[in-house]
Write a structure and sequence with these properties.
Layout lengths: L7 H4 L15 E4 L2 E4 L2 E8 L9 H9 L4 H9 L3 E6 L4 H9 L6 E4 L14 E8 L4 E2 L7 E5 L3 E6 L16 H8 L12 E2 L8 E7 L2 H12 L3 E10 L9 E3 L3 E4 L4 H4 L1 E4 L3 E9 L4 E8 L6 H8 L29 H17 L1 E5 L6 E3 L11 E8 L6 E3 L9
Parallel strand pairs: 11-20
Antiparallel strand pairs: 1-2, 2-7, 3-6, 4-5, 4-6, 8-9, 9-11, 10-11, 12-17, 12-20, 13-16, 14-15, 16-17, 18-19, 20-21
């Protein structure tokens, strides 16, 4: 075991995520698409229980899969990948370390020990990576619709095609970071910290509630978790949706398939309930506008229920008429067979590979993403209204999205 990993950390500039007010990213904006100039970052990942007693290379090659095994070996040899291991010490050993000026109980495992090291509980894998964030639709300050703002909350109309908060290949290209860095109408950036109070899919637009304090964030989150908040969404779907004064209710379990986790851990099933009401129909397009009232808050709930009702969202890339998980692929809402799972995984892997080019980065040698098309970053699902209570609560409502004008 070693405590030092050579000169690598001294030679490369590293910009830490979340260091607000220190280093602002360089955005490149062209044809309505916003890109972040690549940057270096320290990434720390706590070891999961299923990784115990497996080698670092095994985990990187099977779970992370950003590069092939040979590239991970090269990075481990260069100490671009290390492990922080917490020692199990007696009181006497800990006292001795403190007297020697060693203030923590960890050691950093680098090359060559890391090549055959088997991961232990509480280990942390650290990687220095050259980050290439995915592109998003550009947000112009003057186009942001501010629904409500006071000392505790900011409520805005989120555009489609951008995640609310940092996730996977999006950090500076997340809605919250762009607002924190660039501000919003009537408010210049002053390093304010915004806390998202709920989730919206990247492709979903609409009501987005941010809190300006941890206390306010907890309050809004609890109101939503306790199902005290009525949510109303708009969707543009295929076909003529049934007209019924009481609405159409779907009670299908929501089954979400995550092919990255494998058959055992990648299938999640939860009970769900959504009420749908017809708004209008365009005969020429054979499309309807539907109002959606989710009574539970499951991942992709509205999208899955509309698919199961055979009125999928027109341009939904997952559950739509041309989506990865459309009904025509043999999906049974009540059962996910191993054959179906492997079929979806094969399609997902093909789609992922098609999103990469043969052009490689001069700095890190990773494959560059194919340019995104703006039209493919919009989905016709919109969070139209969030309301707490009938009388004394609050209500936040956006304008109608342009795509609803059919």
């Amino acid at each position: 075991m070693v405590n030092s990993v050579g000169l690598f950390y001294q030679l490369r500039p590293v910009y830490l995520r979340g260091a607000m007010g220190l280093t602002k990213p360089k955005y490149n904006i062209s044809n309505g698409i916003r890109q972040v100039e690549p940057y270096f970052e320290n990434i720390s990942t706590t070891v999961k229980s299923r990784w115990l007693n497996r080698t670092v290379l095994d985990i990187l090659a099977t779970e992370f899969r950003s590069f092939d095994a040979s590239e991970y070996r090269r990075r481990m040899r260069n100490n671009e990948i290390t492990v922080i291991h917490r020692l199990k010490l007696t009181k006497k050993e800990r006292k001795s370390r403190r007297e020697s000026g060693i203030l923590d109980d960890t050691v950093r495992i680098g090359f060559p020990e890391i090549m055959n090291y088997q991961l232990k509980d509480n280990d942390i894998i650290e990687r220095i990576e050259h980050i290439h964030e995915r592109s998003v639709i550009d947000i112009r300050l003057e186009d942001i619709e501010v629904i409500h703002e006071d000392n505790e909350l900011l409520v805005v109309n989120k555009p489609s095609g951008i995640p609310i908060h940092p996730v996977q290949n999006y950090f500076y290209n997340s809605f919250v970071r762009i607002l924190e860095i660039e501000g919003w109408p009537g408010k210049a950036s002053d390093n304010v910290i915004l806390r998202p109070c709920h989730r919206l899919d990247k492709l979903t637009s609409g009501v987005c509630i941010f809190a300006k304090s941890a206390k306010s964030a907890r309050q809004i989150q609890m109101q939503i978790q306790d199902r005290n908040v009525e949510k109303v969404y708009l969707a543009r779907v295929c076909g003529r949706f049934p007209e019924d004064e009481e609405g159409i209710e779907c009670l299908d379990d929501v089954v979400v398939v995550d092919t990255k986790k494998g058959m055992k851990d990648g299938i999640m099933r939860k009970s769900a309930k959504t009420l749908f009401k017809f708004v209008k129909y365009n005969k020429e397009l054979n499309q309807s506008i539907v109002m959606c009232f989710p009574k539970t808050g499951r991942t992709h709930q509205i999208r899955i229920h509309l698919r199961n009702l055979k009125h999928p969202i027109v341009n939904d890339p997952l559950y739509g008429p041309n989506g990865l998980m459309k009904l025509e692929h043999g999906f049974d809402p009540n059962k996910v067979s191993e054959e179906y799972f492997n079929k979806i995984k094969s399609i997902a892997d093909t789609n992922r590979q098609s999103s990469e080019t043969d052009v490689r980065c001069d700095t890190c040698d990773s494959k560059l993403y194919t340019p995104l098309v703006k039209e493919n970053m919009v989905m016709y699902l919109h969070a139209f209204k969030y309301r707490l209570g009938e009388v004394d609560g609050w209500v936040y409502q956006t304008s109608w999205p342009k795509w609803s004008e059919i």
